[in-house]
Amino acid sequence: MTEETLFTRIISGELPSDMLYKDDLVSAFRDIEPQRPTHILIVPNAPIPTMNEVSSEHEAALGRMMVVASQIAREQGIAEDGYRLIINCGDHGRQEVMHIHMHLLGGADTGPMITPQQGV
Asked: What whole-number distance in Å separates Cα of residue 6 and Cα of residue 103?
């Protein structure tokens, strides 16, 4: 059995959230510590710890995450100006919750993709 995460508790309704979308494969809700005016998390309902555990059986849920991101971006009024989608993986990717999740960020310039590091 996969370990329970903050996101599995939100998906099940055990923890409150500002849920914007939910179906049999994915859920989408507002981040409680938004980094931009629009900051929404889109997660597969079945927990997958990191991108390293993704297999062909996850294609439908991961594809649905993309479709839902596009739909929510239009609904939130950020599609025309643009937005950023981010999936972090592992320690170096700064993944904080071991349940794949995609950040949908918009409503303001998201800045450069990465910033140069000293000595690189």
From this structure: 15
